[in-house]
Amino acid sequence: MTRLLPAILLILLLLLASLFVGVSHVSIATLTGSGEGGHALRVLVVSRIPRTLALFLSGAGLAIAGTIMQMLARNRFVEPSTAGTVESASLGILCVMLVAPGTPVLGKMLAASAFALAGTALFLRILRQVPLRSVLLVPLIGIMLGGVIGAITTFLAYRYDLLQSLGAWTTGDFSGVLMGRYELLWLNLFFTAVAYFAADRFTVAGMGEDFTTNLGLSYRRVVSLGLVIVSLVTAVVVTTVGAIPFLGLVVPNLVSMMMGDNMRRSLPWIALTGAGLVLVCDIVGRLVIHPYEIPIGTVFGVVGSVFFLYLLFRKRSRVA
Q1: How many CB atoms lie within 10 A of CB 160?
Q2: What is the full per-residue pLDDT of the chain (320 aa) written as tens digits?
Q3: How far is the C-alpha of 280 from the C-alpha of 300, rounded, in Å?
């Protein structure tokens, strides 16, 4: 806990900075002043606090979901956006929009969760049929599966004039987060707690089915629990703020380089690092072309792509 204190203090500073960065001028002076104090306080309560909490919960949740995915697939390059999970969740939301447009957000989240669960299970099923578990072949299969599902989703969206709505689900953007439109993300906190209590089981499952069975654990139950957590976290984030690519890939690898693969020990660091990176990228996106914003999906897409390439070349150099 003592080692976590500096990281917690850094996250608190980022949370504070996120509250005071944006188009509307909100500062200690405006909040305590008599002139614009009411407007600044309203912006803070209705927009800035919900947005900051959404950033924290999304970052922590997706980072942990990526960690579980990597444990289950036994591959460092797998995460929800490279395993077809995000595309499956988007397809689920689109199907709800086509069949029952008036469905509340909770209904869309449940449908997205069901599709994400099916897509992730299909990905793991395909992996079992691959004779050579190459390090680079596994994420390639996931990207191809996601491409097929994404193509079907795009065709349906184009056919029924929903391409604009689809863009909102596939590009992470927190600019529209307001009070009353982000509360589903609190579920990520619950899933994070479940993942922490089951961390040892996921670590054992990451060593293979035979090893898990020999230790007296049910491999299928552990995998099913992991799939449910990954699918629900992904669906909640995609439904609320859209997809943030590579977050679940970058954070677990960064933490693993520093702390190793003990999931229970590294899980708090993974959650804090995920939340911190999302906060930093969102603040950068708000400052680069101020007063306009760059969606966090774009900012983190650049960061994640560079880190993904670094991991690829690092792995290839080791193999060579």
Answers
A1: 12
A2: 667 888 899 999 999 999 988 887 877 777 777 666 677 888 888 889 999 999 999 999 889 988 888 888 878 888 887 788 888 888 888 898 888 888 888 888 888 888 988 888 888 888 777 765 566 777 788 888 888 998 999 999 988 888 887 777 777 788 878 887 788 888 888 888 888 888 888 888 878 788 888 888 888 888 888 888 888 888 888 888 888 888 888 888 888 888 877 777 888 899 999 999 999 999 998 898 888 888 888 888 888 888 877 877 775 555 44
A3: 10
Alpha carbon distance 43, 49 (integer Å)? 9
DSSP per position, 148-200: HHHHHHHHHHHHTT-HHHHHHHHS---TT--TTSSGGGGHHHHHHHHHHHTHH
* 76 close to 226: Cβ distance less than 8 angstroms: no
Give, as one character, the DSSP assignment of residue 48. Answer: I
Going by the DSSP 8-state scheme, the letter that residue 44 receives in this structure is I
Taking alpha carbons only, the member of 254, 228, 253, 233 closest to residue 244 is 233
Query: Tokens standing for 58?
Result: 């999304």
- Name the residue with tokens 């229970």: 264
Please name the residues in contact with 233: beta carbons below 8 A apart, sequence gap of 6 or more: 61, 62, 64, 65, 187, 188, 191
Model confidence, pTM: 0.87
CB 1 within 8 A of CB 265: no
Sort 174 into a burial class: Cβ within 10 Å, 0-12 / 13-18 / 19+.
buried
- Give the span between the Cα atoms of 59 and 39, in whole angstroms: 29
Q: Report how far residue 318's alpha carbon sits from residue 162's, in angstroms, rounded to the nearest whole number.
A: 45
CA 195-196-198 angle, 5° bins:
65
∠ Cα 71 76 79 (to 5°): 75
Q: In the chain, what is the straight-line distance between the N-terminal and C-terminal CA atoms, in Å?
A: 39
Structure tokens at 146: 């996601």
